[in-house]
Amino acid sequence: MVDSEVTPAALGAAPWGSRLLGPADEGAISRRVRVQLLLTIPLLFANLTGIAVAALLIGLVLPGPSVFTRELVLLNFVAVPVYIGIALAAGWAWGTVWALRTLRWAIDPDRIPTEAEQVASARVPRRLVVQQALLWFGGVVVLTPLYGLVDPAFIPKIVLGVGFSAIVVCANSYLIAEFALRLVTARVLDARRRRRRGLGVFGRSLVVWLLGSATPVALLMIIAVLALSGVDVSTDRLAVCVLSLGGATLIFGLLLMAQTLAATVAPIRGVRNAMRRVEDGDLEVAVTVYDGTELGELQSGFNHMVAGLRERERIRDLFGRHVGHDVAAAALARRPELGGEETHAAALFIDVIGSTTLAATRPANEIVTILNEFFGIVVDEVEAYGGLVNKFEGDAALAIFGTPAPLLDATGCALAAARAIRSRLRDSTMEFDAAIGVAAGRVVAGNVGAHRRYEFTVIGDPVNEAARLCELAKHEDGRVLASASAVADADPDESKRWDLGETVTLRGRVLQTRLARPARA
Questions:
Q1: CA-based angle 475:476:477, to the nearest 5?
Q2: What does R_g of the chain's alpha carbons equal in angstroms?
């Protein structure tokens, strides 16, 4: 599972697909009140609407004897309201109170639900629907015999009117419960190791069609069958039935479909918005997995994809820190292979003076801290001038300019970097000094080693010359030496900042090297 705690702040104000569900950092008490209100008020409104629709169907739409007679006054104004009141109270106590008790574990934001709590929480929407269906069915069981005792012709009206409303209300209640409990579903899905898919998007859409469209049409067909079977249904009454049930089909079908589409679009919109943030370079984004259908798998798959991108970027960054970002970029851009190519480059070699004495008088941890501070200055200035620190060799470092990333004035950049490093070291509070040597010329740059393990390196006379100049610079007051050929190769703006000096034969070399020093200010 992707760690859902990585990005709650990055999820925005609507992590569960709707602002009605609150922000991710909402308090436990206010969240509990919010869930209770989102469960109670919409469900109460849906049931009251269903009661009104049932009353209209039975009283004004469906064919049969009128319910507005003296014989039915007690039933209409006493028995029916009493049962409705009892059913609403029972539905509230049995439904929302039971649901909140089942979801009590969710009050603690750090609580991981047990397997039993996960199963019970996942069943809450279905249990709410079953409970409401039983209460509506109880109305049919109680009221149908009472009206049937007055006139048996009332029986089909009661059954059809109440049954139609019950089906639509139950379907709507399921969607309401799914919506209100998204944040709980998200935590359940996050805790589950194996994801269990419910009806799915297709099954959910099919159920909505059956309840929002097929049921009213089936009711119309039943009325047509009753008319054909000899039941007295006038033309006017049949027209009222068609218009009423047709209107109910349009209205309730639209409401159910709108709820279904909203539940379907919300996860997709969340993934789309998160993808835009990934395109902008934000790899810390994630989406909350709160849908138990294929859309939840889409959300989870996106999180796994971004986690993979984060891991890949971390490896890329780590790779770049070890070998240099330019080397890493070149290795990723083409298939790496052993060997190299000849190119023009400049080498800068820097070495700490008196490192042996330092190692003998300081603890190892302290020496590492001092060297890291020293190399921090070196890396900053080398990269500022477009170079690459190719190697750290104990208390020394080799920087290359002009490969693998080409530079218009590689030699000038190396000379400028040497002056900048010297300036920063002179102004620092470090207890040691360092010498710098710079040379330029033709080198071979590429991968050296074996097929299973190799590294990018630069081989050539300029590298050796820079190391020897660094060694000689340890005895110079300015601590920086460059070859005259490197100064001549640099841009004039940089060359004029150097003074040419004597000619020497460096240790281990046959050809003489004319020295150059930074010009005095």
A1: 125
A2: 40
- Map residue 204 onto helix, strand or coil: helix
DSSP string, 30-65: HHHHHHHHHHHHHHHHHHHHHHHHHHHIIIIISSSS
Rounded to whole angstroms, the Cα distance separating 512 from 183 reads 77
With a CB cutoff of 8 Å and minimum separation 6, the contacts of 210 are none
Q: What φ, ψ does residue 404 adopt, rounded to 5°? A: -75, -15
Give Cβ neighbours of residue 201 (< 8 Å, ≥ 6 apart): 264, 293, 294, 295
Q: Which residues of 12-22 are buried (b: 16+ CB within 10 A; e: fewer)?
A: bebbbbeeebb
The mean pLDDT of 112-141, rounded to a whole number, is 85
The answer on pLDDT for 356 being more than 50 is yes
Whether cis (ω within 30° of 0) applies to the bond prior to 145 is: no
Residue 198 half-sphere exposure toward CB, CA atoms < 13 A: 20
In tens, the pLDDT along 228-265 reads 776 677 777 778 878 877 887 788 778 878 878 887 88
Which has the closest alpha carbon to 17: 276, 309, 295?
Answer: 295
Contact 224, 176 (CB under 8 A): no
Average pLDDT over residues 112-136: 84
Q: Note the pLDDT tens digit of each residue in 427-470.
A: 887 778 899 999 999 998 877 777 666 677 889 999 999 999 99
* Cα distance between residue 244 and residue 383, in whole Å: 77
| Cβ-contact 415, 494 below 8 angstroms | yes
- pLDDT given at position 521: 62
Residues pairing with 442 in the sheet: 344
* C-beta of residue 187 within 8 angstroms of C-beta of residue 289: no
Q: What is the DSSP letter of 492?
A: H
d(CA 115, CA 107): 17
Average pLDDT of the residues in 179-199: 69
The pairing of beta strand 433-449 with beta strand 480-483: parallel
**pTM given for the model:** 0.58
* CA–CA gap between residue 5 and residue 145 (Å, rounded): 57
Give per-residue burial for 176-199: e unless 16+ CB within 10 Å, then b.
bbbbbbbbbbbbbbbbbeeeeeee
Q: Is 170 helix (H, G, I), strand (E, B) or coil?
A: helix
DSSP H helical ranges for 324-409:
325-333, 355-361, 364-384
Rounded Cα distance between 482 and 477, Å, is: 14
Distance, in Å, from the CA atom of 391 to the CA atom of 400, rounded to the nearest integer, reads 9
Token pair belonging to 117: 């709590």
Q: What is the pLDDT at residue 434?
A: 93
